[in-house]
């Protein structure tokens, strides 16, 4: 178990192996490991980012949906209001038209009633006069009492 | 080789297994520094090529989007090492992580040679004329020391790079014991220098011995189990192999962690 000149041989082999490993083996292996670690880290961060983005987008979608819903509700409310307004207007118009027609009819009725009354009055006065004439023919001279007759006719 | 004449005794068997294929071949006689362990060298080199080939292939065809299962397995190891380095080492050097990866995988592969049946490669070696063969490079003190000393020298260089030569030398003489007065500072200088030497020395030695001791002991236990009669080997052999899986990975892991720690200690201010 004594050391001898083999020391130098073994040290030489050792040195050559270390140098070879240092120059040719270690760098590509460690570069590959680091590259992979970097890729994994990048992938994880990208996934995180995508998740965040997704969340943002989902939030925006919810926001837009909410907006759209409120807008739709507003539009519906407006439409309902407008419809009610239209119905009211139509009702009002209808009522006004009815009233107008009613008034016109009433006016016509009144006019006709008036007319009829006037005619009736004329006929009654004519009849009265005729009656009176028949009565008075016997005792009253129509020419003498014309004034009286005319005033009577207008009063009737 | 004595095995051809008579069956080796237990001691002979183990002693034979503990002799490296070296140049010039020694058989455990007189100590000669200028021997070279061919088995340690070649097995370590081949396993180094296996490591470089596997990881290099994956590194060349690395795909970010469609990794193969094997790439994911390699990435698992790379990421483990990278995380530890990022946690412990706060210096600028880009060398520590590849160093730690090399240390970990290479040691795991070398330790795993223990899982081959203890006699398999030596027997095959005998067929091609290799009379001695130890197949676990990390059970050889040279392998452990070569790596630990390289790490310690590298940590010193990193310290010089981080603090400058002046800063490093200043720290060498003023830490771990700090003094206020000039006189005390001078008195503490040799103490500090001695402490620093002991610190670096013990780091290197403990780093190497921990690994080599564990693997040597593991190998020895496998040899002892191999000495049992054939019907008695299965259960202790399996049990020790399963337990050894833990040791193989754990020792490599400890070596890697301590490598990172020592390098980070070197660049940090005291």
UniProtKB/TrEMBL annotation, chain A:
Keyword field contains Glycoprotein: no
Q: Would I find Transport among this entry's keywords?
A: yes
Location (main, coarse): membrane
High-level lineage: Bacteria, Pseudomonadati, Pseudomonadota, Betaproteobacteria, Neisseriales
What the record says about family reads: Belongs to the ATPase B chain family.
Location comes to:
Cell membrane; Endomembrane system
Question: InterPro entries per the record?
Answer: ATP_synth_B-like_membr_sf (IPR028987), ATP_synth_b/b'su_bac/chlpt (IPR002146), ATP_synth_F0_bsu_bac (IPR005864), ATP_synthase_B_chain (IPR050059)
Entry-linked Pfam families: ATP-synt_B
Q: Which HAMAP family match?
A: ATP_synth_b_bprime
Q: Which residues form a coiled coil?
A: 47-82
Q: What does this protein do?
A: F(1)F(0) ATP synthase produces ATP from ADP in the presence of a proton or sodium gradient. F-type ATPases consist of two structural domains, F(1) containing the extramembraneous catalytic core and F(0) containing the membrane proton channel, linked together by a central stalk and a peripheral stalk. During catalysis, ATP synthesis in the catalytic domain of F(1) is coupled via a rotary mechanism of the central stalk subunits to proton translocation.
State the PANTHER family in the record: ATP SYNTHASE SUBUNIT B, ATP SYNTHASE SUBUNIT B', CHLOROPLASTIC
Which SUPFAM superfamilies does the record match to this protein?
F1F0 ATP synthase subunit B, membrane domain
Region annotation (Disordered) maps to 89-116
* Membrane topology classification: Single-pass membrane protein
Report quaternary structure and partners.
F-type ATPases have 2 components, F(1) - the catalytic core - and F(0) - the membrane proton channel. F(1) has five subunits: alpha(3), beta(3), gamma(1), delta(1), epsilon(1). F(0) has four main subunits: a(1), b(2) and c(10-14). The alpha and beta chains form an alternating ring which encloses part of the gamma chain. F(1) is attached to F(0) by a central stalk formed by the gamma and epsilon chains, while a peripheral stalk is formed by the delta and b chains.
Which keywords, in A-to-Z order, does the entry hold? Answer: ATP synthesis, Cell membrane, CF(0), Coiled coil, Hydrogen ion transport, Ion transport, Membrane, Transmembrane, Transmembrane helix, Transport
- Name the residues that span the membrane: 6-26
**Name this polypeptide is given:** ATP synthase subunit b
Q: Where is the composition biased (Basic and acidic residues)?
A: 89-103
* Entry-linked NCBIfam families: ATP_synt_b, PRK05759.1-2
UniProtKB/TrEMBL annotation, chain B:
Membrane topology, as annotated, equals: Multi-pass membrane protein
> Keywords, A to Z?
ATP synthesis, Cell membrane, CF(0), Hydrogen ion transport, Ion transport, Membrane, Transmembrane, Transmembrane helix, Transport
Family matches, as SUPFAM superfamilies: F1F0 ATP synthase subunit A
Query: Taking the first listed entry, what is the main subcellular location of this protein, grouped into a coarse class?
Result: membrane
One matching Pfam family: ATP-synt_A
Transmembrane residue ranges: 41-59, 95-113, 141-160, 211-232, 238-267
Question: Keyword DNA damage: yes or no?
Answer: no
Q: Where in the cell is it found?
A: Cell membrane; Membrane
Question: What is this protein's function per UniProt?
Answer: Key component of the proton channel; it plays a direct role in the translocation of protons across the membrane.
Please state which protein family the record places this protein in: Belongs to the ATPase A chain family.
Under the heading PANTHER family, the entry gives: ATP SYNTHASE SUBUNIT A, CHLOROPLASTIC (PTHR42823)
Q: What is this protein called?
A: ATP synthase subunit a
Which species does the entry assign this protein to? Parachitinimonas caeni
